[in-house]
């Protein structure tokens, strides 16, 4: 066992209200300067939706992440050393400014100077990059306006195979928010893609950083990251990315996005893992087993054997204590309510999510209850507004079983808390099979 420590985050998606406070405070702290206008180290996506940059999940198009060879090895989708060189000198697969969105302001003068007319005047957007008037067709979070409706759903690659569930029935549309930062992966393909060796993973806490002095602006990291969380600063000619707010974390305060999150949904902390298991876990044959393989890399910080191995690995006792106090291991491994985003990219991401339980449609219609009563628990899980298949495409490479398992636990927890608040005995009402 080779114990290492890693900073990680778990986000509880039921609590995200899409206010974008996290994105704005992150921007004010880290990317509020020339060359970074389009950059959001933290962004909050509307789901269903195209994401930011748009369609970043289409790895065939953008060539991010790792693929498993028939012999069980991992190789970068963007290719090996030779292909890397060829790609550098040809045209790397890079999102354009239109895929991120061209930042703009409004031509407020048009409004102010407009003569009285029958209709409201329209403020035209003005590009912050060129200063010219723009005709915008798409921008981040415009998916909100579609509210997950069919027009959008059909365009969304991730909904392939479940169109039946959402076809042309507006009362069954659904949406939720997915906040995203760099995943500070255990097996980061951004670092493996970099020809200059400028991207590195800190051994003490696993935070992935770009050495600005070594970066030569090849942008292979932008191609190589399947989550598209490395950005090119076109003023400095260097790559930049989320730093997990390491200057704050080092003095014991949380990341800006966590501290300012209105929904209080971001749990951060240290987790211990067995570094000897990571490559093997990232190489398992079945995409649907990857989330569990990664989970098995995490170590129980309360296990005396793990504590001994941590000490031998030079991890300070107060760091092990921090891992014990952290909610990360508990949410991922003890209670098994958190799942990784797109484990099939094989980078072993370290931002995990508690999937949204979402409102229950049928139960409300039939009984007036909202699934927080134990009587409705199992009926409720079959009547969720967000299709479980959709969540499974995000978190378990399409396997609905583990997502169902998490949702049952969340429903049981709601029911348990309701019983307590109503002065009832929860042990009487929660079915033992929920666990
Ligand atoms: Fe690298 Fe972050 Fe992308 Fe993972 S999510 S590959 S650590 S930039
Ligand atoms: Fe969601 Fe919190 Fe960000 Fe608001 S601040 S969008 S609640 S993650």
TrEMBL record:
<keyword id="KW-0560">Oxidoreductase</keyword>
<dbReference type="GO" id="GO:0008940">
    <property type="term" value="F:nitrate reductase activity"/>
</dbReference>
<keyword id="KW-0677">Repeat</keyword>
<feature type="domain" description="4Fe-4S ferredoxin-type">
    <location>
        <begin position="7"/>
        <end position="35"/>
    </location>
</feature>
<keyword id="KW-0411">Iron-sulfur</keyword>
<feature type="domain" description="4Fe-4S ferredoxin-type">
    <location>
        <begin position="173"/>
        <end position="204"/>
    </location>
</feature>
<dbReference type="GO" id="GO:0009061">
    <property type="term" value="P:anaerobic respiration"/>
</dbReference>
<dbReference type="GO" id="GO:0046872">
    <property type="term" value="F:metal ion binding"/>
</dbReference>
<keyword id="KW-0813">Transport</keyword>
<dbReference type="GO" id="GO:0051539">
    <property type="term" value="F:4 iron, 4 sulfur cluster binding"/>
</dbReference>
<dbReference type="GO" id="GO:0009325">
    <property type="term" value="C:nitrate reductase complex"/>
</dbReference>
<feature type="domain" description="4Fe-4S ferredoxin-type">
    <location>
        <begin position="206"/>
        <end position="235"/>
    </location>
</feature>
<dbReference type="GO" id="GO:0016020">
    <property type="term" value="C:membrane"/>
</dbReference>
<dbReference type="GO" id="GO:0009055">
    <property type="term" value="F:electron transfer activity"/>
</dbReference>
<dbReference type="GO" id="GO:0030313">
    <property type="term" value="C:cell envelope"/>
</dbReference>
<keyword id="KW-0249">Electron transport</keyword>
<keyword id="KW-0004">4Fe-4S</keyword>
<dbReference type="GO" id="GO:0042126">
    <property type="term" value="P:nitrate metabolic process"/>
</dbReference>
<protein>
    <submittedName>
        <fullName>Nitrate reductase subunit beta</fullName>
        <ecNumber>1.7.99.4</ecNumber>
    </submittedName>
</protein>
<keyword id="KW-0479">Metal-binding</keyword>
<keyword id="KW-0408">Iron</keyword>
